[in-house]
Task: inverse folding
């Protein structure tokens, strides 16, 4: 079984690595958006999967990465900026984690959501009242979307590897023990505050890197676009659909919802949010374990 | 969301009075949220969207049929109560019976996120995303030396009236007392013989009816668009934390936020206004030790 899995992964990898050679630009841009959400979902899953801390502030880190890149892009190479965005987000959220992750359950959810909206307001205010203009145009350093595609593929592979590593390491087990019972984990000698902060920082690091990567493809940046709360909700919804705390759940969720959104947006743009909302309600009521979880339960029977 | 009325003299008293007007509406919003969470363990992210929906209905009935916003309330109130009963039957009751207790709150959070998208999508479809406003009783009246538009005075009076009626209901009737008991200590209250499940549906519907009232009072005061709901949801969440299950705490908190928001708008800059709530929320979340669990 392990061999089949390995061959399947190899085939998929070669397919995605060579895809720009024979797929049209439409499919490449669709794959870019699916990869983006798979990366965001996988990154979100690093904290939420094992520890059950649900963050709705991903948009803040996504937007920070995007803004940093858009401001510094004329002077610095894009790759360096992605690295800086990732590093900066890691540091910020590592420090923030010690404060924010003391809150549990819904209070953490509310705090992260408030932080996201606060940073959006802060950027809108700075741009409108201090800089004097809101929104900037960006000149892409690349001729086509292919470099973005490969960068996202690389980040996705990294995110998947981290998620897989969490399943098979002391660090991941420590996080899992926090999710199962924080007091018990602490009694057993797990430094919960430190581990939670590390997971939060890792998660935001990837989210920031994704923001720094995709913004080059968008050509225009505005605080309401990059700090849109949808970048907080969508990854969470996709992971919940795919299966929280699983390695492949985020990818499956991103692929299903990504294709569905594309289909809906082209056919019925006016019903898009309604159907997105209904699918979320459906997931909560009928698929509480996600697709991967539901499959697993069926296999066990 | 900017308020239509701009005051001429920059007086603290002005700020205080218009802060109280906002505050009285915020208190109702917060009270409904406190009931939903404290009593039902439902964390309703769609709370503000229901207010938005009620405000749009008010706008719509006024512009098309010429129904006065005050007369809209007898229409929207039972309608929202009914929506609450149906929603509870279709979704929340299923969650109550199928989801383990420790996941119930998180599930309601996600469910109402979905609900919020549905309502926003519906409003965008039905009324488009163009901001809308209508003028109803916008003539100025003099209250205690402050020039206020009549619709704001009515909103204030309506807010205070609703608050007092609800307050009396909570403190004088048996159902209200049971509700407060459930809010303070759910297990204790159930031991004494208060039936949680019976209360669950009716109180969910009552809180939706409260959003109908708030929406109708807010409608003439703001520019309506399908996304204003999020602001009220945030205020509700803030009051949930400020109030922490106490009715009085929630009412006082509502007035404090109303005044803080108005003060920032006049003294700092209107673009900074949406941030005030978040700053208060973040500070309180980080400083209050009792809610860290």
Result:
């Amino acid at each position: 079984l392990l061999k089949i899995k390995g061959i399947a992964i190899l085939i998929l990898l070669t397919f995605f690595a060579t895809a720009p050679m024979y797929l049209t630009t439409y499919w490449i841009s669709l794959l870019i958006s699916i990869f983006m959400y798979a990366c965001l979902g996988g990154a979100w899953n690093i904290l939420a999967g094992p520890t059950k801390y649900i963050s709705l502030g991903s948009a803040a880190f996504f937007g920070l990465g995007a803004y940093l890149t858009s401001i510094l892009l004329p002077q610095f190479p894009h790759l360096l900026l992605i690295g800086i965005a990732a590093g900066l987000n890691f540091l910020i959220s590592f420090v923030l984690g010690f404060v924010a992750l003391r809150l549990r359950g819904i209070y953490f959810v509310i705090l992260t959501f408030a932080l996201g909206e606060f940073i959006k307001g802060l950027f809108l205010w700075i741009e409108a009242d201090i800089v004097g203009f809101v929104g900037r145009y960006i000149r892409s350093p690349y001729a086509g979307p292919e470099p973005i595609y490969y960068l996202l593929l690389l980040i996705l592979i990294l995110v998947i590897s981290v998620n897989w590593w969490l399943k098979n390491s002391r660090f991941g087990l420590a996080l899992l023990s926090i999710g199962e019972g924080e007091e018990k984990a602490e009694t057993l000698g797990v430094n919960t505050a430190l581990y939670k902060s590390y997971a939060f920082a890792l998660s935001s690091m990837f989210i920031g890197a994704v923001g720094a990567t995709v913004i080059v493809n968008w050509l225009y940046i505005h605080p309401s676009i990059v700090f849109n709360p949808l970048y907080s909700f969508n990854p969470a919804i996709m992971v919940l659909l795919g299966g929280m705390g699983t390695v492949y759940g985020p990818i499956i969720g991103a692929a299903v919802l990504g294709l569905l959104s594309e289909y809906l947006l082209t056919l019925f743009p006016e019903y898009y949010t309604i159907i997105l909302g209904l699918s979320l309600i459906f997931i909560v009521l009928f698929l509480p374990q996600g697709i991967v979880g539901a499959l697993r339960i069926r296999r066990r029977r | 969301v900017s308020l239509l009325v701009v005051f001429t003299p920059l007086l603290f008293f002005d700020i205080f009075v218009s802060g109280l007007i906002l505050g009285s509406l915020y208190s109702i919003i917060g009270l409904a949220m406190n009931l939903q969470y404290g009593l039902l363990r439902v964390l309703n992210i769609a709370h503000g969207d229901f207010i938005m929906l009620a405000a749009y209905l008010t706008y719509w009935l006024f512009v098309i049929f010429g129904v006065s916003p005050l007369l809209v309330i007898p229409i929207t109130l039972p309608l929202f109560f009914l929506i609450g009963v149906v929603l509870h039957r279709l979704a929340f009751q299923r969650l109550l019976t199928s989801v383990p207790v420790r996941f119930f709150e998180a599930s309601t959070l996600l469910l109402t996120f979905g609900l919020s998208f549905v309502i926003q999508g519906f409003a965008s479809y039905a009324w488009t995303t163009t901001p809308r406003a209508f003028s109803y009783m916008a003539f100025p009246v003099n209250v205690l030396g402050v020039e206020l538009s009549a619709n704001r005075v009515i909103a204030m009076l309506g807010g205070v009236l609703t608050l007092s009626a609800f307050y009396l209901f909570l403190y004088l009737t048996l159902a209200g007392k049971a509700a407060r008991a459930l809010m303070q200590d759910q297990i204790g209250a159930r031991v004494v013989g208060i039936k949680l499940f019976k209360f669950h549906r009716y109180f969910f519907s009552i809180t939706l009816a409260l959003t109908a009232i708030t929406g109708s009072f807010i409608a003439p005061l703001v520019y309506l668009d399908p996304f204003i709901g999020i602001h009220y949801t945030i205020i509700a969440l803030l009051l949930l934390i400020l109030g922490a299950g106490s009715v009085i705490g929630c009412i006082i908190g509502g007035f404090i936020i109303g005044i803080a928001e108005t003060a920032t708008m006049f003294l700092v800059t209107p673009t900074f206004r949406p941030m005030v709530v978040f700053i208060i929320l973040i500070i309180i979340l980080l400083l209050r030790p009792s809610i860290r669990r």
Notes: Chain B has eleven helices and two strands. Chain B touches chain A through 43 residues (CB under 8 Å). The two ends of chain B are 34 Å apart (CA to CA).
